[in-house]
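Q: I'm writing a short explainer about Trypsin-like peptidase domain-containing protein for a general audience and would like to include a description of its predicted shape. Could you first generate the structure from this sequence?
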Amino acid sequence: MRLPALAIYGMVLLSLFSSHVNSAELPDIIDRIRPSVVAVGTVMPLRRPSAQFMGTGFVIGNGNLVISNHHVIPDLIDVAKKETLAVFSGRGEKAKVHPAKIVKADPDHDLVLLEISNGPLQPMSLAAETEIREGEAIAFTGFPIGMVLGLYPITHRGIISAITPIVIPSNNSKNLTAKQIQRMRNRFEVYQLDGTAYPGNSGSPVYDAQSGRVVGVLNSVFVKESKETLLERPSGISYAIPVKYVHALLKDAKKQ
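A: Of course. Here's the predicted structure. Afterward I'll give you a sentence or two in plain language.
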């Protein structure tokens, strides 16, 4: 990690603890944070379409860092065919492409920190690690249907329904999957939301509906694999990784 990037975490903390963010109407908050919500995927010049959407992310820090879910990053990138990791900003059909690289990954909490070129973009502010409680109003903005119709972010709102362990107990050990067993060794609490999310929403910022500060990272795959494996018909429940793990990821990146 380059030396100038080491100051990024300090800048994130500065945006967190500086001037008080006044409460605002949700439409005003959406207008403010929309430029910070980006698509995450890959670009391959000879592929049609050349851009492939994998998930959503959001900009933080100095405007050159993006947070998303680790599972949206492809396991293999075809370097021989000039495929590259990329972030897409803008709105509508004219998306701007930002080459990206992985700065730090946290597979245990399904988070990844990316650094982009051709920035900076407008960053979002992170909430304190313990700022949210059950029952508080939240919203999340992302791309549930990808870039099929262009970059048009969609916002859902709801509340924090529960703060719950990532893995549900099983009455029979035979019903446990390998992924559940692995995650039982690294149990942590996640936010259960009453808003419905889709696979393209993975990595979307979940933010306080009054301040716009990020309280979590939406996760529509990683948590469900543990929480809803035993359900015959998975529910429309959505989950978010608490922002405290984003803070931890930034601290680890600073040490790197």
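A: For your explainer, you could say: The chain has a mean pLDDT of 83.
Q: Perfect, that's easy to follow.
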